[in-house]
Amino acid sequence: MKRSLKIVAFLCLILSFTVMACGELVDCIISAKPTLPPKTLRIGQVGVAYSETIQASVKNAPNDDSYIYYLSIDNGLPPGIGYYQQGRKIIFTGTPTAAGTHTFKVHLTIDYPDTWEDDDDDPFSDSNNICLGNDTTSRNYTIVIE
Prior knowledge:
Shape: elongated
Number of strands: 10
Radius of gyration: 21 Å
Strand content: 35-45%
CATH class: Mainly Beta
Distance between the termini: 69 Å
Largest sheet: 3 strands, antiparallel
């Protein structure tokens, strides 16, 4: 029984190397994941211009900028504050009109590049995202307006 398990494990390993290159196998084991940083957003004042930025990233990726980022927000921004996306940054701007504590959720979805160069300069393609892992995440943030 042990011998047959060893043979099956060995065959799976061989199959893995024949189906994909070593670099691709490593990419499968250490998958890229979108991340939003934990961050305390600065306190704002009613009637005073406010600006703050959150920058998304892709964990385990050598070039974060090669991905396409889609950022969105659930309800909860302070009245008078809006947001826009610039690359992998979400920027909050405006002039708050009311005091309060406002908690909201930022959602991040990434699209993977169809092909890019690995560290060994070999093209890597994973158009079906089998190896690259989950492509969405979200995190709660709070803006306090005094």
